[in-house]
Amino acid sequence: MRVLVVEDEQLLADAVATGLRREAMAVDVVYDGAAALERIGVNDYDVVVLDRDLPLVHGDDVCRKIVELGMPTRVLMLTASGDVSDRVEGLEIGADDYLPKPFAFSELTARVRALGRRTSVPLPPVLERAGIKLDPNRREVFRDGREIQLAPKEFAVLEVLLRSEGAVVSAEQLLEKAWDENTDPFTNVVRVTVMTLRRKLGEPAVIVTVPGSGYRI
């Protein structure tokens, strides 16, 4: 899942990003509304965690722009105000969910994952295919009943492949969904991660390489 965190309190923004990365999400971070508009014009995000009171461009205007562009991106709006009127106003301008500060990180993560499931064809919370069972909320993976321990990027790649439901996923798509924008696109990080993932999942191999196209399960 690709997430953009937009928050002008840099310590909070960085802490949220670090936590979401530990949950196997690809996360980019910006600290003002103008930078947020620049990022959403370049990258496709599943979820934007958007502080409402931003410098340069207000969070409301960022949210309106996402709606105006017709993007499938979901918006989780954050605010220091817990007033019902503020929550209603935020939802009316196009936010998909609303979370007042201070918040429990576990709740933020659960809300981000719930919104991420709504950006495409609805899928069950637990993904299953070819004997593999992946639970994004519990961060658990099983193959034929045997638990598999995966690193965050391995988990993220496997989740993207399972969500494709048998369709081929290119290396570029995996890079976009499982890594943030600081990753060098010319590295072999995708190939190495897929190789390690195959080894951990064991035989018979379930990740198929489609020459010139990508990977599928």
TrEMBL record:
Secretion signal span: none
InterPro entries the record matches: CheY-like_superfamily (IPR011006), OmpR/PhoB-type_DNA-bd (IPR001867), Sig_transdc_resp-reg_receiver (IPR001789), WalR-like (IPR039420), WH-like_DNA-bd_sf (IPR036388)
Keywords attached to this entry: DNA-binding, Phosphoprotein, Transcription, Transcription regulation, Two-component regulatory system
Residue ranges annotated for the Response regulatory domain, each copy included: 2-116
DNA-binding residues: 124-217
Gene Ontology annotations of biological process type: regulation of DNA-templated transcription
Function according to Swiss-Prot or TrEMBL: Member of the two-component regulatory system CutS/CutR, involved in the regulation of copper metabolism. CutR suppresses a defective melC1 gene, encoding a putative copper-transfer gene, probably by altering copper metabolism.
UniProt protein name: Transcriptional regulatory protein CutR
Species annotation: Streptomyces alboniger
